[in-house]
Amino acid sequence: MKLLDSFRSALQSIVVNKLRSSLTMLGVIIGVAAVIAMVAVGNGASAQVQNTVLSLGSNLVTVTPGAQTDAGLRGAGAQAQSLTLDDMKAIQDQLGPTIKAVEAEQTAGRWQVVAGTTNWNTNVVGVTEDYPTVRDWNLQSGEFFAESDLRLNAQVAILGSVTAENLFGDADPVGRTIQLRQAFGGGNARARIVNFRVVGLLEAKGSTFGFSRDDQILVPTTTAQRVLTGRTSVVNSIIVKASSSDEMANTTEDVRTVLLGRHKISDPGSADFTVTNQNDTLAALGSITATFTILLAAIGGISLLVGGIGIMNIMLVSVNERTREIGIRKAVGARRRDILTQFLIEAIGLTGLGGILGILLGWGITEVVKRIPQATGLLVIITPGTVIVAVGVSVGIGIIFGLYPAMRAARLHPIQALRYE
Question: Are 46 and 290 in contact (CB under 8 A)?
Answer without folding.
Answer: yes
